[in-house]
Structures are given as C-alpha cells and as structure tokens.
Write a structure and sequence with these properties.
It holds the Pfam family SurA_N. It is found in: Periplasm. This is Chaperone SurA. Its EC number is 5.2.1.8. α1 crosses α4, α1 packs across α6 and α6 crosses α14 (about 390-420). The protein is α+β, with helices and mostly antiparallel strands and about 450 residues long. The strands form 4 sheets. A 4-stranded antiparallel beta sheet has the order 4-3-6-5. It has a 4-stranded antiparallel beta sheet with strand order 8-7-10-9, sandwiched between helices. A hairpin with a 2-residue loop joins β9 and β10 (about 375-385). The two termini are about 35 Å apart. The protein has helices at about 1-15, 40-55, 65-85, 95-105, 110-120, 125-150, 155-165, 185-205, 210-220, 240-245, 300-315, 320-330, 350-360, 390-420; strands at about 30-35, 35-40, 170-180, 230-235, 260, 265-275, 280-295, 340-345, 370, 375-385, 425, 435-440, 445. It folds into 3 domains: about 1-150, Porin chaperone SurA, peptide-binding domain (Triger factor/SurA peptide-binding fold, Orthogonal Bundle), CATH 1.10.4030.10; about 170-275, Chitinase A, domain 3 (Roll), CATH 3.10.50; about 280-385, Chitinase A, domain 3.
C-alpha cells in the first residue's frame, strides 16, 4: 500500500505545477497527441519538477534537450492512457480521489490541510493535485482492466515455477537500460541501436558513469529518470533471457547487452536477498455473506446509499439475508449463492471490507458501509484459524508470474498505442522520433534509435 501511494504521489507530481511564483510565459502547444494537446506550460512544469527531484544531483541529468524529450514522451504516454481509459468507460469517482488524497496525507503523517499547504509552497493548488491524482487512478484502473481481461496463470505454470525454485527464495533488486528499436526496424537502425548500447556499456565498464546515471542519460525506458530502477524481483519475475545470468551475478554486476522485443537491454543486479518462505503460519479466516449495491450502475451515490439503508432496515425487521442477497445484491460472483463469500483472509477483499468484517461478532449483520466497489451489508457467519503456508506460497508464485505477464503485456500495449497515435512535436528539440536520443559518446543521435 505504501508503494501504491508513493507511485500515485510521484506520478501526480509529474503534472503538478512546480514554481508558480515564476512569471508565466506565453503559452503555446508543445505536442499534439491525437485529439489532445500538451501545452508548453505543462511540459515546462513537468521538466521543472524532474529538475527539483534531482536538486543537488543535476549532473546526473541528461542535456536539457534530451531531458525535455524524455519528459515529453512521458506526457504523451500519459495522455494516450487517459484518453484510452475515458474512451473505454473507465471511471474514477470523486470519492475515490478524496480517499486517495486522505490516504496520501495519512501516509505522510500530515492532515489534508497540511498537505495542501505543503503543495501550495511548491506552487501546486489542491484542485490541480486532485486532477493529477484522478489521472493516475484512471491509468491504474486501465492497467487493472487489462490484467483482468488478458492475464491468466495456470496451475501448471505455478507447479513449474515451484519446481524451478527448488527451495530457493532469492530475490534481486534490478535496474535496466533500454535502447529501443522500432517495430520493422531496418538493419541500419538495429546496428545503430546496438552500437549505442555497446557505447553505454563501455562508459560503465571504464567507470566514467555509474549505471543509474547512464540510465537517466541514455535509456529509452519510461523509468529512465528513476535510474532504470525495476525494484525487487523474484526469479519468476525476471525474463527468461536474463534469469540464468542474474542468478550467477553478484550485486553491482551488469549483464551483457541482450536483444529483446523492444530493443537492446542491460540489467544490473543492485542487491540480492534470500526471501525463503517462512514456516507455514496460522491466520484468522472469516466466513461471511454480503449484499452489494454499486454506485453508478443503476443509481448515484445518494440513491445507492438510500437503497442500502432500506435493505438494512428490512434485515433488521427480520428479512432473510440469503434471500435478500439473491434478490437485490449487485455482486454477480456471490449473488446466486445468497451473497456467500466463503472463507477468506481479512484483507482479501480490501482493508476497508476486512476491517468491517473483523468488527462483527459471528452471526451479526453490519450497518451499510462504503468501499470502492459500492455499499455493502455484511453478515459474518464464522471465524477459524487456518494453516495457509502452502496456499500462501502458491498464491505468491501465481501473483509474481501474473505480474511478469502483465508487465510484458502492458509494455506491448503501450508500444502499440504509441505506434498508432498521431503525435506532432511542435517545440521539443530533437523529438521528431520518440527513439531519438543522445549517443553514448555525448553526441546527438538523430537516426531514430
């Protein structure tokens, strides 16, 4: 959850104004993205925020025109994702935005008013921050929709991954550098890209630049400005082309360049750790049924709450919970079973839902309460202590395989969406092609690789 809020905060700040006290230049269109535009002021603010994040380390940033191109590409992808989310019916309610802002404030141990004051000191108004959070949530929901519709992990894949682990629980903190190659690249473009990554490799080997700084300056990956950081990965989450190499590497070592679907890559093992599974543990599980009234399907927020209140009154008056759930619940996965959710761990359906279930006594019915899914009424049936060690390990392996698949599919989705888009860079230097960059020798590479 902490990573989620940090990601939302970082993403939102990309679009948030950085130095409002500076005189505002005459605005203009920096980039045309299909039916939308990126204003020069948006681009300037985003670049200023990146520079602010690198205060005291500006020597790690690429030359101004390369940085501007990198940030412009980020904004292009963000615009495309938001447009796709809106066109496919992805919604984020105002209440969800406010809940996220409250959670970010709590994570930073400040009130919302204090968070607003802190943003204001940096030149960002709370309404602007709110809109940025909404955009970030839209993108996350678009990604979740892709995961639900495109990603599946079979039991056979889980079995194979468990067999491959052979008791090893090693995890690796990785970073990468990508030199992109466009689809249908010519032999000359491929050769230029290979020459570029070999030049970057030579700089790192000679000690003229560390890996993170090289990623910031030369990588074409969307996470270039984070030093190419990929975070912690288990063996199941590392592409097979790299997995065997990584297992035989020590922290600080860098792989040889490898050609992949999106271009040439190098990986660095930043750290490694043994995260072997602990002995099977006993956890509390709950058995409950619920009635769900969604917001926005057949009713707005007020109407949904009123309906939930009415149903709760009927239950208090003696109505049968299962019968009412079959009649009124809007959760298709449990409606036919009278709202029965079976046995589940406390946070399986989210922390808010779990907290409400945990407060009940067995046999008790909750008052209506709201989560992101809508308004719930819950009847707790029972509790038990369960040994979930083996199940937990399989679930974790399934999740890591799913994350790896989602990452591959999401990157393919972004490349496809970017390739199909009409993008016209009006003022961004050297950005006529999204793959244009600076050569490893410090010269500009305008070959499109």
């Amino acid at each position: 959850m902490k990573k989620l809020f940090a990601s939302l905060l970082a993403g939102a700040l990309l679009l948030a104004p950085a130095f409002a006290q500076q005189p505002a230049p005459i605005d203009g269109i920096a980039v045309v993205v299909d039916e939308d535009v990126i204003l020069q002021s948006e681009l300037d603010r985003a670049v200023a925020n990146i520079r602010a994040q690198y205060a005291g380390r500006t020597e790690q940033l690429p030359p101004p025109e390369v940085l501007e191109r990198q940030v412009a590409e980020r904004l292009v992808l963000l615009k495309l994702q938001i447009a796709r989310a809106n066109s496919t019916g992805v919604k984020v309610s105002s209440q969800e935005v406010e809940q996220t802002i409250n959670a970010i404030a709590a994570q930073n141990q400040v009130s919302v008013d204090q968070l607003a004051a802190q943003l204001a000191r940096d030149g960002t108004s709370l309404p602007q921050f709110r809109e940025s959070i909404r955009d970030e949530l839209l993108v996350q929901r678009l990604r979740q929709r892709l995961a639900q519709s495109q990603i599946s992990v079979s039991d056979a894949e889980v079995d194979a991954a468990l067999a491959a682990q052979q008791g090893s629980g090693m995890q690796y903190h990785l970073a990468h550098i990508l030199v992109a190659v466009p689809e249908g690249a010519t032999p000359e473009q491929i050769a230029t890209a290979q020459s570029k990554i070999e030049g970057v490799q030579a700089l790192i080997k000679r000690g003229e630049m560390d890996f993170a700084a090289a990623a910031v300056r030369y990588s074409d990956s969307p996470n270039a400005l984070e030093g190419g950081d990929l975070g912690w990965r288990s063996s199941d989450e590392i592409p097979s082309a790299f997995a065997e190499m990584v297992r035989n590497m020590s922290p600080g070592q860098v792989t040889e360049p490898i050609r992949g679907p999106s271009g040439f890559q190098m990986l660095q093992v930043v750290e490694s750790r043994d995260a072997s599974q602990a002995a099977p543990s006993m956890v509390t599980q709950y058995h409950a049924s619920h009635i769900l009234i969604r917001v926005g399907e057949n009713a707005g927020a007020a109407e949904a709450k009123a309906k939930a209140d009415t149903l709760h009154a009927r239950l208090v008056g003696g109505a049968d919970f299962a019968a009412l759930a079959r009649e009124e619940s809007q959760d298709p996965s449990s409606q036919a079973r009278g709202g029965d959710l079976g046995w589940f761990a406390r946070d399986q359906f989210g922390p808010d839902f779990g907290a409400e279930v945990a407060k009940l006594d067995d046999g008790a019915i909750s008052a209506p309460f709201r989560t992101q899914a809508g308004w719930h009424i819950v009847k707790r049936v029972g509790t038990r202590q369960s040994d979930v060690g083996d199940t937990s390990q399989r679930d974790q392996v399934r999740e890591t395989i799913g994350r790896r698949k989602l990452e591959d599919e999401w990157n393919r989705f972004l490349r496809e969406m970017r390739g199909e888009a009409f993008v016209d860079f009006r003022t961004v230097a050297g950005a006529g092609d999204s793959d244009a960059g600076e050569g490893a020798d410090g010269t500009r590479d305008t070959s499109g690789n």
